[in-house]
Amino acid sequence: MKVHIAAGASEDEASAIAAAVAEHVGEPVEVFVGDAEEPAVVHDVDASPAADGHASEPSDAPGETEEELGPTDRERRLRDEIADIHRGGPEKYRERLTEQGKLFVRDRLDLWFGGDGTGEEDREDGVHFEDGTFANFDSWHEDSPSVEEADPDTRLPADGLLTGAATFEGRDLFFMANDFTVKAGSMAEKGVEKFLRMQQRALKTGKPVLYLMDSSGGRIDQQRGFFANREGIGKYYYNHSMLSGRVPQICVLYGPCIAGAAYTPVFADFTVMVEGMSAMAIASPRMVEMVTGEEIDLDELGGPGIHARHSGSADLVAEDEEHARELVAKLISYLPDSAGESPPKTDGTDPAKSPAGIDSVIPEAPNKGYDVRRVIDRVVDADSVLELRPEYGREILTAFARIDGRPVGIVANQPNQRAGAIFPDAAEKAAQFVWTCDAYDVPLLYLCDTPGFMAGSQVEKEGILEQGKKMIYATSSATVPKQCVVLRKAYGAGIYAMSGPAYDPEATLGLPSGEIAIMGPEAAINAVYANKLEDIEDDEERERRAQELREAYREDIDVHRMASEVVIDEIVPPSDLRAQLAARFEFYETVEKDLPEKKHGTVI
Known about the structure:
By secondary structure, the chain is α/β, with parallel strands linked by helices. Helix content is 35%, strand content 17%. The longest helix has 19 residues, at 539-557. Mean pLDDT is 88; it is low at 48-59 and 116-123.
């Protein structure tokens, strides 16, 4: 191809034009300047341009072919530097990890992602890349001896914090992981910068974030430049707040996360602690003793038992590192990558137990306890249940599961725990779970069997009204498809919190054992007829009259009366409940619900 350009063009300009045109058209190009009869430059597609019509000589050493080219000493030196950084802190700290039954951070990444960070292996799961490997490199590398002899106060590879992106269970996500061999996984200026960049990239791309925490907190002896700065450690929690509801944030704790480090797990959507290994607290035992005089060890202060049973900050407790990975793999399978996307579906499976047994599981007597899990096992796909915070607020069960392959969030009263009455901690647990499901478009299934909110001086001190309103608020504000099933009792404000007819469910279904009322028969008879019954002197006559009143009251609140008055949408044969729910969730998959225009509510 011949190209003519204006007279006066320089040789460099002619060469650049020749190269660009040749690359574009995919064939050799001759460039003529002005009226010249000979080309100033000839450019072959696979060769460098040459002036005066002659191909340029190869830039490689004489006699060397492309096939013989390989890494230079410069590249080998770089690889040695990377390998040195990857070894982490001093060997004695690596040995301590082994004694504690913990993995070195890079072995942990290999467990999670199965990769080596080079991007050379073609794996379904693998570390794609790491950012900030050379953080703080200049401050320690030149003067640092070998890793075995290094001073832990001066050797700071990657500044003790690893960040990057990876594929996990076929899902792309961002990760961070503390290196506990580098000053106990503490955070300082360069590591903080890496953490913030990772969060900001997650915000931009809409990818989930995995936090693998093992940190003693901020590096007190190096706090300048990261503690109070605009782009310092405080920005972590600002970014956590901005990410909240935007992308799933999952945190796994592998060690003692104290002070500032403890906020990341509580800001995350889901927190996994590892038994015998992890802890989190606002201050260390030493600091607690100094401030309050209380002597306490770390496990008693903030171990998995404390946060799983008492604070509710731990959603799941793993037996070991491998189990933690398994739990997160299951958890993320119910969640989309980001808000506005649909949760991933799978092929449906039959339930573990036959739906034909549902009616037999639910006792006829309204006050007799049973395990609501026996109903759930007959409604959802086999092996699909992942219960969250099972030891906290046990009067309500919160769990992810699937119905015919579709992820759902289950909020179920638990009648074998204090008759299923709603206590403050159970209400708080349910509210947060509903809020999270709604953020990530996971449909909600409410299984109602409760005498309502618990009464008494102790629960008033614990904030039953405050926590109860949060549960009702979350249910009211949720715009995902909701189905409410009245299994048996639906008394008092319990039917409100459990997404009853007034709370915009796609349906309120009742089983033949269902009852809806302000209160149960015993409480109602006592409230209305106590004086009249007391006036009956004969004990047998008094009991006969009381029984008549109970039966009349029960007829008035029976699910058939509720269906007759169109309070509920349908009475469903218990054996058909799973099929009904599958059909209804599928039908209402794309339902749209609008909330009033406002900045946000003021309840939570």
